[in-house]
Design goal:
This protein has about 230 residues and is an alpha/beta fold. It has helices at about 20-25, 45-50, 65-75, 95-105, 125-140, 155-165, 170-180, 205-234, and strands at about 5-10, 35-40, 55-60, 80-85, 110-115, 155, 185-190. Helix content is about 45%, strand content about 15%.
């Protein structure tokens, strides 16, 4: 695998304590790493630059989906064929990136680094939420996916060019899974290890608001793809 075909994108918000370590370890796997500082006020951008990676900044917090979109709109036009996304809180060990690359090399356009084998280590509310949301989104997508909430992923240029990422916040990652499956892109789930299975202490996820946003986004994505299929059959 030619690493020059792949880049790493790290969306970051208020991640100054962890971003430098994550960025350096990602550089140890892939030579092209981009951090998108999503309106942080704690020195996240400065810490990332000190680690030797390129940084793009949002003037205000716009959400994870918007940060990913900024990264993809920067990286894919540069010729990269795939982008691995890694969370900035050090929950995702960059050393696991080769597992995602292996699934890509086998033909997947979207690779999910799944954690379902670690759900037992999570707080029961988070474990239940992950299981229920994965089942619900799997149903809407039409493919059994064991962990849809993971942010440790690989996206191909082909997938992003066709589907984009219109949502701005956490719901973006769930909606793109539904669109990808319904549009016929190969989606693979690859088990990965985590530094911390739970991640509650570092997550910016708001259970009620973001869960409602995810539900609305995935239903809308399912309706969109239904209209695609109807149009293509006419």
């Amino acid at each position: 695998m030619n690493a020059r075909r792949v880049a790493v994108a790290i969306p970051a918000f208020q991640a100054a304590p962890t971003i430098a370590d994550v960025a350096r370890r990602a550089l140890g796997q892939i030579p092209q790493v981009l951090v998108v500082d999503d309106g942080s006020t704690d020195g996240t951008a400065e810490a990332a630059r000190a680690a030797g990676v390129r940084v793009l900044c949002h003037e205000r917090n716009r959400g994870k989906g918007a940060a990913l979109r900024t990264a993809f709109d920067d990286l894919f036009p540069r010729g990269f064929e795939a982008v691995v996304t890694v969370d900035a809180d050090a929950q995702h060990p960059p050393e696991e990136i080769p597992k995602l690359l292996a699934a890509w090399e086998q033909g997947a356009d979207l690779v999910l680094g799944v954690r379902d084998h670690l759900f037992a280590e999570m707080f029961w509310v988070r474990r239940l939420s992950n299981r229920l949301s994965s089942r619900g989104i799997s149903f809407l997508a039409g493919q059994l996916l064991s962990d849809v909430q993971t942010g440790f992923r690989l996206y191909t240029r082909t997938l992003y060019a066709q589907l984009g990422m219109p949502e701005d916040r956490f719901e973006a990652e769930s909606a793109v899974v539904v669109r990808a499956v319904r549009a016929g892109f190969p989606v693979a789930c690859t088990p990965v290890r985590l530094a911390c299975a739970d991640g509650r202490t570092t997550s910016h996820y708001r259970p009620l608001i973001d869960s409602l946003r995810i539900a609305r986004a995935v239903i809308r994505a399912r309706m969109e793809t239904h209209s695609w299929n109807r149009a293509s059959s006419l």
